[in-house]
Amino acid sequence: MGIKFPQSFIDLMKIQNGGELNFPYFLLPDLTEKQKISSIEPIHFKEDDLSILSSNELLADTNLPMEFIVLWTDCHFWVVFDYRNRKDNPPVLYVFENYSTKDITWECIKVADSFDDFLKLLFRIP
Prior knowledge:
Distance between the termini: 39 Å
Structural class: alpha+beta
Number of domains: 1
Shape: globular
Number of strands: 8
Largest sheet: 4 strands, antiparallel
């Protein structure tokens, strides 16, 4: 893929290769509404399984940058690594469809400067 995953991401994948999160919520900067990332896509090498390695296929129909690595998506909302300006330690972005304009556009909000910082933002609701 020509990129280097953050060490904290690699360590997490070694413990549990994707799946449900115990702390699935985070707040977007300057917003009080919580967002949810219910799971992180696993790393699979099987063709038919959805995986982080499927990022190119997931992004192909969206006009989103191919330098994004998809951590989670429901096709309208995304959490991605942004490798546009670096090949290691990428920021984490929240990407969503903006329906408030005539043409649907994509908006990107930087959630964290790194995956380590993103993990610190996650919380759960009792």
